[in-house]
Design a protein that fits this description.
About 45% of the residues are buried. Strands 1-2 form a two-stranded antiparallel ribbon. The protein is an all-alpha fold and about 700 residues long. It is built from 35 helices and 2 strands. It is about 70% helix and about 0% strand.
Length: about 700
């Protein structure tokens, strides 16, 4: 027997050395015996604890395993939770306003990026609104700067977007680029996608659309303005946009809306200015002048009010008042080039003072105008130098104008005239085509006739000149000039038909239609026609009476009374029974301030042709000049029986009624202005009638 260690409990006992490692101690053997006799489902007995000295290493291993297991379980739980948690939403893309602000920062327009600041946005918005309401050019630039800062502080706020777009629209001008306009449209469109019913945003969109007033833009602007007004009916900005949106279609309604808004929000001076413009567009010159006057009472140098005043006074033929308004405007704004330009236009087209016109145009250019206004000024310089006989200077002026703005309408008109004089058919067609209808229907027809005359055989070009005469049936200047062109084409019969039609109405209608314009051809066509009609009379004695009468009418309209008298006497000698030469001689006497000499000539003309409108009109003018007003009224009535729409007679009858205090005078003048807006003395008479009443 030898000492043996039990493999189960590690106890040492006396045992068989040959079975060492397999024998167990008596205690473990007895416990094993008892387990074999227990039921199978019984739980196994817990073995006795191992002695401490033998259990130390196993505990450390077990503890490490447990720790690792806990770490693994914890990691699994954490990873599982992360797997179940939804992924964070991606950051929203920048709005159009944020992208624009980013570009401003990148290009140095704004300082480096700053955090959104609603309080700062509110302050800048208040500044921008106050600057806009001041209705002054310098303050408009301030408004744009404040609104830009507000947008930078809160680019996702609808009110910040609306303020910036409105301020931008208020400063859109000739120098605004297409990229700038497109960016503004992107900003307001993006903001409206998030806030589709926001009134100020819709108003801002309206203003932006009206900044480039195409037919489609105006239609969209009206729709946006209606929705804006429904959303914010008391907001001054919204009401301003709503009035401006309909001003072109219904200026009367626009004026009412803007006047009501101005009464509700007197601090917003833009409403008064816009109401004045709308009243003028509606044909109420007196109300427009009154509103412009109230605006000038607030700001005596307000450019818009002075410009409107000058425009109304010019359209009414009140030249001195127009010059005074333009002089005030030029003095109030030393950088504005338009006042001296308009003074130049009055100087050469009304006063015939080419030298004064050139001085005014030089002053206008010295003020550093933008390209579009500079091109317009240079076009007038071309007209003045062409009238003075300096063709080279006129060509230089046109070339400079077209270099600045190739499509400038006034410059293209002058370019076409110069090209025709140079017999350059291609250049005439080019400029006429670029101009299109922008110069009005008469200018378009005349340039088309010039192009046809250079490009076609005479028989094909003649209809174009007949169309030009038909485009201005109440303007003897155009008709007689067209007759001269027909004579250039050797179409004498057609030329005499055109001149006869002009003399049948009353050639003095031309005098009440020729106000200042940017499309001035000057006296050359009429002077050329006078020479050609006189040449025809010498070449064909059988046509002398009619040809000399036409020549006399040309000279009369040019203000050449001596030449007109000589030619009219020649016509009378060729046809003693003709009414036109007698009427022309009577008008020459009236132009010289000799109504007593005019009356018998006019009476003889009426006796020769009682139904002749020209004869009756000049007879009435002679009677009026002599103070025989009732007789004059009847004579004008006879002229109107012959030609019911004769502007000279309608104007005179209305004026006589006004002198008598007849309430029918005002509606008669208003109807004449409405039906024949080119008759500027009717506007003047209406202003004289309405002005005192408005003032009271």
């Amino acid at each position: 027997m030898a000492p043996v260690t039990c493999p189960l409990c590690f106890a040492v006992f006396e045992g068989d050395a040959a079975r060492a490692g397999a024998a167990v101690c008596p205690g473990c053997a007895s416990r094993a015996q008892r387990r074999t006799h227990r039921p199978a489902a019984a739980a196994p007995a817990v073995p006795p604890r191992a002695p401490a000295r033998a259990a130390g290493p196993s505990r450390r291993v077990l503890a490490a395993a447990v720790a690792l297991a806990l770490v693994a379980v914890t990691a699994g739980v954490v990873l599982g939770r992360r797997a179940l948690r939804p992924a964070p939403a991606p950051a929203p893309p920048p709005s159009a306003a944020e992208a624009l602000v980013g570009r401003w920062r990148a290009t140095g327009v704004l300082p480096p990026a700053a955090s959104p600041d609603d309080a700062d946005a509110d302050r800048q918005l208040a500044n921008a609104r106050a600057a806009l309401a001041a209705d002054l050019p310098a303050r408009a630039e301030d408004a744009l700067r404040y609104a830009r800062l507000a947008l930078a502080a809160a680019p996702r706020r609808a009110d910040a977007v609306a303020a910036w777009v409105s301020a931008f629209a208020a400063t859109v001008g000739d120098d605004t680029t297409g990229a700038e306009l497109a960016a503004a449209h992107d900003v307001v469109r993006d903001a409206l996608a998030r806030s589709p019913g926001d009134g100020p945003l819709l108003a801002a969109s309206t203003r932006l659309l009206l900044a480039v007033p195409s037919a489609a833009n105006v239609a969209q602007a009206e729709d946006a303005a209606r929705r804006a007004l429904a959303a914010a009916p008391r907001d001054p900005e919204v009401r301003l946009a709503a009035g401006l949106a309909i001003a072109g279609r219904d200026p009367e309604a626009a004026a009412r809306e803007l006047e009501a808004a101005a009464a509700d929000a007197p601090a917003d001076r833009r409403l008064i200015s816009a109401a004045a413009r709308a009243r003028w567009a509606a044909g109420d010159a007196a109300a427009a002048l009154a509103l412009a006057g109230s605006r000038l009472a607030q700001d005596p140098g307000h450019a818009g009010a002075l410009a409107l005043t000058a425009e109304i006074e010019t359209a009414a033929g009140r030249w001195d008042a127009a010059r005074a308004a333009l002089a005030r405007w030029a003095a109030a704004d030393g950088a504005a080039a338009e006042p001296p330009l308009l003074l130049a236009r009055l100087a050469y087209q009304v006063d015939g003072d080419l030298a004064a016109a050139r001085r005014h145009l030089d002053a206008a250019l010295a003020r550093g105008p933008g390209d579009f206004l500079a091109a317009r000024i240079l076009a007038h310089r071309a007209a003045v130098t062409r009238a003075a006989g300096d063709r080279a200077a006129a060509v230089d002026a046109v070339e400079m104008a077209l270099k600045r703005v190739p499509g400038s309408a006034p410059a293209r008109f002058q370019a076409a005239l110069l090209a025709f004089e140079a017999a350059d058919a291609a250049a005439t067609r080019e400029s006429a085509g670029v101009l299109g209808a922008r110069g009005g229907p008469v200018a378009r027809a005349v340039l088309a006739a010039y192009a046809a005359e250079l490009s076609m055989p005479a028989e094909d070009a003649a209809p174009a000149w007949l169309a030009a005469a038909a485009a201005a049936p109440r303007d003897a200047t155009v008709a007689l000039s067209a007759g001269g062109a027909l004579l250039r084409l050797r179409m004498a019969a057609a030329a005499l038909r055109v001149s006869a039609a002009a003399l049948a109405r009353d050639p003095l209608e031309a005098r009440v239609r020729h106000g200042p314009t940017d499309f001035w051809e000057g006296p050359a066509p009429l002077a050329d026609a006078a020479r050609r009609y006189a040449d025809l009379a010498r070449a064909e004695p059988g046509r002398a009476a009619d040809a000399l009468a036409a020549a006399a009418a040309c000279e009369l309209l040019l203000g050449h009374t001596q030449a007109a008298e000589r030619l009219a006497r020649g016509a009378l000698a060729a046809s003693p029974q003709a009414a036109a030469p007698l009427a022309l001689l009577a008008q020459v006497a009236l132009d010289r301030g000799q109504p007593r000499a005019a009356l018998p000539l006019a009476r003889a003309a009426v006796q020769g042709r009682p139904e002749d409108a020209f004869a009756n009109a000049v007879h009435a003018r002679a009677l009026e000049a002599l103070g025989r007003l009732d007789d004059a009224d009847r004579a004008y009535g006879a002229a109107l029986e012959a030609v019911p729409d004769l502007a000279t007679a309608r104007l005179a009858v209305a004026r006589l009624a006004a002198d008598r205090g007849d309430p029918a005078a005002r509606p008669a003048l208003a109807a004449l202005v409405r039906e024949d807006p080119a008759v500027w003395p009717a506007r003047g008479a209406l202003l004289e009638l309405d002005g005192p009443a408005r003032a009271r």
